[in-house]
Structures are given as structure tokens and as C-alpha cells.
Amino acid sequence: MRLGSKTSPVLLTIGAACLPLLLAFGPAQAQEQVRRREPVLSVSGEGQASVAPDMAIVSLAVVRQAKTAGAATAANTAAMNEVLAALKADGIAERDIQTSNFSIYPQYRRSETKNGTIETQEIVGYEVTNSLSVKVRDLTKLGSLIDQSVKLGVNSGGEISFTNDKPDDAIRDARKAAVAEALDKAKTLTEAAGVKLGKILEISEGSTRPMPQAPMMRMAMAKDVAPAPVPVAAGENTYTVTVNVTFSLGE
User: What does UniProt give as the signal peptide span (predicted)?
Assistant: First the structure.
């Protein structure tokens, strides 16, 4: 009896100390358990919107070879300066012209023995490549710009990707279409299951991408260029947005 009387106050004291914690965390945990048990429906929707491109990004490169690195660099620089001057004269802003690559590589002549193994490697020259990434905001000038660049010494590259400077409106339309598809899916599923569709508990955007972007083309840079400008077809850019939506369910 004495042992019990001594330990009881301690137990009561601990219980009183923990009571505020139980009151503070108990209801929250209970609500979390209820929320977890609440029936929900999660669906995804995808929306697309197409728009004509208003800008092209063109890759142009000048490649020159010579016996020495200095001679190859000098020849490359002279040709690239002419290309840059022509681009600026054609209305391309400096902010839309960017050097994307500059490289110098030795060129080797290899001698092989009869058994196929390489015996010697001799440097016989150097190749210098200077590449530009050019944004063309006036697509009506694209064909003539490529044509003129080739005449001035561009002999590599020619990759073109069409894009939009500000695709905000197209992406907004794609978002609306994605949400509409998600809502339609949810209604179809709940009607088929014979349950009521509740309120939206959560909505998130999964991804936004230009898919597919207008085709990327690669044009051969030949020495002999036709007098007419290079024909270019811009097509359309399609922007795709995915959304994920979670609904509560009723009986």
C-alpha cells in the first residue's frame, strides 16, 4: 500500500504533463487519419495548342584548313568577319548573334605497318571551326540570309529550329485544355462508378513543353549555290501541358 501511494502521484504528474501534448497533437493526427481515409480520385489531363513560329534559330559554321594553326585561324577569321558583317547589315541585332563553338584540331597522316598497327602519326595541317547561333526574328529573311552566308564562306552547320519568342498565350490555352480534359475524365469515371465527384483537393502542373517543335532541318553547305534564296517552310509549333488533379469523392 505504501509503495502504491508513493508511485501514484508520479504517474499522475506524468499524465498531467503529457495532457497538453495529447490535446495539441491528438486532434491533428486524428484529422490526418480521416483525411487519408477520405476517398479521392486522381486524374491527369493533357492539353495542346499550336501556333505559327515567329523566330528561327540557325546554326552557321565556318571551317577552314591550312598547314599551320595560325594560317587556318587567319583564314577562318577573315571569312567569319564577312559573315558577321553581312548578318548585321541584314538587320540581325548583336544580341541575336552568339558564338556557340570555336575549335582547332590537328590533322594527322597515319602510316600503318603490314600487320595493321599504326607506326607513326604526323601532323600535316590544322582545321579551325567557328560556329554561330543566330536568332532570325524576321522569317521572311531566313532563306536569303542562309544563301548569302554560304556565299560568304559558311560551309558547315545549317541546322534550323523554329520557335516562339513569347509562347505565353499558346501555353495558357494548352493549360486550359489540360484542365478541361482532367475534369472530363473525372466526370466519366465517377458516373461509371456511380459516385459523386467532390471538390478539387489538389491540382499541379506536370510538365510544359514544345512537343513537337517545328521540324529541325539540316541544310548542306555546298560551294555552288543556286541564285534563288533557300526555300524554308516554318510550319507550326505545338505546346503541350500536363496537369494532375485530385478530387474528393462522395457517396
Answer: 1-30
Q: Strand runs (DSSP E) across 164-232, as ranges?
A: 196-210, 214-218
**Nearest partner of 137 among 91, 98, 68, judged by Cα:** 91
Q: CA 245, CA 42: separation in Å to the nearest integer? A: 6
pLDDT at 221: 47
The residue among 190, 162, 170 whose CA lies nearest residue 247 is 190
- Residue 86 neighbours by CB under 8 Å, 6+ apart: 148, 149, 152
d(CA 175, CA 89): 41
Q: What is the mean pLDDT of each run of 10 residues along the chain (251 residues)?
A: 42 43 52 67 95 93 94 95 92 94 90 67 91 93 87 84 92 96 97 94 85 47 52 86 94 71
Beta-bridge partner residues of 217: 160
User: Is the entire prediction scored with pTM above 0.70?
Assistant: no
Nearest to 26 by CA among 61, 233, 34, 144: 34
- Residues 62, 221: Cα–Cα separation, whole Å: 10
Reduced to 3 states, what is the DSSP secondary structure of residue 145? Answer: helix
Q: What is the pLDDT of residues 191-224, one digit of tens each?
A: 999 999 999 999 999 877 775 444 444 444 444 4
Domains defined for the chain, CATH in brackets: 38-54+166-222+236-251 (3.30.110.170), 55-163 (3.30.70.2970)
19 contact partners, CB below 8 Å, separation of at least 6: none
